[in-house]
Amino acid sequence: MSFDVDVTLQRGGRSFEYRFRTEKGGLTALFGTSGAGKSTLLDMIAGLVRPTSGRIAVAGETLFDSAARIDLPPEHRRCGYVFQDLRLFPHRNVRENLLYGWKRARPEHRWLDVPTTLEVLGIGHLLARAPRSLSGGEAQRVAIGRALLSGPRFLLMDEPLASVDAQRREEILRVIERVRDELRRPILYVSHDRSEVDRLADRVIPIGAAGTTSPPAP
Amino acid sequence: MSVLTPEEWEVLLLSLKVSGAAMACVLPVAFALAWALARWRFPGLILLDALVHLPLVLPPVVTGWLLLIALAPNAPLGRFFADALGMTFLFRWTGAALAAGVMALPLMVRAMRLSLEAVDRKLEQAARTLGAGRVRTFVSVTLPLAMPGVLAALVLGFARSIGEFGATITFASNIPGETRTLPLAIYNALQIPGSEWQVTRLAGLSVLLSLLALVLSEWLARRGRAQGMHHVL
Which Pfam families does the record cross-reference, listed alphabetically (chain A) (predicted)? Predict the structure, then answer.
């Protein structure tokens, strides 16, 4: 089992319910319209938003369980989160951004080395640059690299092609495919683009407008 | 140096000492208050906000008088400082420093609060997911991003404390070499007929110091903006 999620969230008078389980490994796409709370779901898995109740486990480790009073802080969940708005640190250059999580990861958790990351993402020439000087595609690849280098057990990717022009799109799609096929970490991928999902996903979990996942747990 | 007379040097150095000590003590207090006002939501927030800003709107003479009542040798707080720390404030340079610090506090809290509120908390979240705990996130993300604002607040607070007059003269009195800072020396010279030249020189010194501080604080703010940090001052 990769992702095992069964949570409810009360927020601003609305009630969200997310329930799904995925097979081991591969890329799972969360597919649905904007405003369905897909990003909120990723935030809950990352530990940035606390669910009202329920349970979240990833690759066999329980990250949150309201009944058992388990709530791992984000820094102990080891998720590689590629945010929709990237969130590169503006006061640090590309090299420092990339190494931010890498430095804090335990050596035995670092399953990807820096040269390989730079090669796969094609960002070796950007190391001394400031984030604000990067193009959309460059910044996107740096954000992916920063997440990969933090030694994550799983990856959360929130619309990683949203800020990329058509030309760079293909490039980043290939990067994500390499991450999926060669690095073999479970990936939860949020998108509202059908073609993207068809191409990348091993399985698709639709999210309705009410923020409810349709398929019941098997 | 022959530019300033020995008396003027004494006044200048005392002013710098008083304001330096005031800043060293007030900086952590102001930062803690700014943090609480920017980040926490608790009952009494508005009251705390109002209390912090009180010295900004009260007549300085009232602030000085309140300090006098609180810290007189026979008042509980004054007795505590005298017994526990061996510190007295009345007629001492420490009193001038305290008055200067209290008067600069609201200005500093305001500036730091704005710069803390301008720090994008999403960046802190990103740091957390990358393995940094709360403290590391604060040190490596929040503080560096708020730093230009904190430094600008310090410079502004320093300039404000150099100019402090009313609370100081009420609380610590006007004693040469002990509490007679720049504004008090100017006031004193004004009382003596025929000392216009001295007033002019001291006033000029005061203008110079203030200009220096304003230029420095503006430079810090610009440097912060150049680094892509949006903070307000």
Answer: ABC_tran
